[in-house]
Specification:
Blueprint: E1 16-28, H1 32-45, H2 48-61, E2 65-73, E3 79-86, E4 109-114, E5 118-127, E6 133-145, H3 154-160, E7 165-173, E8 176-177, E9 183-184, H4 199-202, E10 205-212, E11 217-224, H5 243-262
Parallel strand pairs: 3-4
Antiparallel strand pairs: 1-6, 1-7, 2-3, 4-5, 5-6, 7-11, 8-9, 10-11
Length: about 270
């Protein structure tokens, strides 16, 4: 139930609702050539066109309007997109879909701005120096004020990326006033971020919640619990591997996932 539908507010809704989460995709790459090919694959899979389409869909889901799009792919890798968004309807004459074609040496990132809020996405491909594990991380922040809720886009964003580990934080800051002057520190009911995630998604994950209701801070971790080895191999079929190699790969992938999920390093088993 949305409390703001029942409240008569004095002026603008000044509550700031921020959803921040990390998405991790784990991959086993056997050598340097596979690691390079994996990063190139990720760079193409999440190029500026794909990321722009994701951000445009997010603005539709949260009922915002696109004002401006600027996108760019970089050499040798990386992409960035900036989208300006309005909470209200705008005329076609006010919309600028121009693209920056320059080649600036900046990190792979995506940034979207609302008129009083913002949405950012940053991607970080990396690999283990001693083992054959490569990890692709996506950082997403959606911060809104007024009636717009970032939680509405949660399921779509999870579906938009390969998500082995998801770590999410949601916080409501500030206050808004009703017509009597009374302050309200939240305008919607929430017990957990999981309330806004589809059951079909949750059924595939192990989850942990840490919620501070008195401070309007909500934290959820999710780790995929249906392990299929072929989902973690790059350019190789598990049937081509010996049993001992399969077991080694499974151990390394599991260790990477557990360390990320619990936020602590685990000594490697010999």
């Amino acid at each position: 139930m949305n409390k703001s539908n029942q409240l008569k507010l004095y002026g603008f809704n000044n509550l700031t609702k921020t959803l921040s989460f990390n998405i991790y995709d784990i991959c086993y790459t056997r050598d340097e050539s596979e690691r390079k090919a994996y990063i190139e694959y990720i760079d193409e899979q999440y190029n500026s066109d794909r990321l722009t389409n994701i951000l445009i869909e997010v603005t539709k889901i949260i009922d915002a309007k696109v004002l401006n799009i600027a996108k760019q792919d970089y050499e040798p890798q990386g992409a960035s997109v900036t989208i300006l968004i309005s909470e209200s309807e705008v005329s076609d004459a006010d919309v600028d879909l121009s693209c920056n074609k320059g080649k600036l040496p900046v990190k792979e990132s995506v940034v979207g701005h609302l008129d009083k809020s913002h949405l950012t996405v940053h991607t970080y491909p990396e690999s283990h120096p001693d083992q054959n594990i490569s990890t692709f991380r996506v950082d997403i922040d959606v911060s809104t004020c007024g009636e717009i809720s970032p939680l509405k886009a949660l399921n779509y964003l999870i579906h938009s990326f390969d998500s082995d580990i998801i770590i999410m934080d949601y916080r409501v800051r500030g206050f808004t006033r009703d017509l009597t002057g009374e302050k309200h520190y939240i305008d919607h009911d929430i017990n957990s971020i999981q309330d806004y995630i589809g059951k079909n998604i949750l059924s595939n994950y192990t989850t942990i919640d840490v919620n501070l209701h008195h401070s309007n801070i909500f934290h959820t971790k999710m780790m995929i619990d249906r392990f299929v080895l072929d989902n973690y191999l790059f350019n190789v079929d598990s049937n081509a591997l010996e049993l001992e190699e399969k077991n080694t790969i499974k151990q390394q992938i599991n260790q990477e996932m557990v360390e990320i999920f619990y936020g602590m390093n685990i000594p490697t088993m010999k």
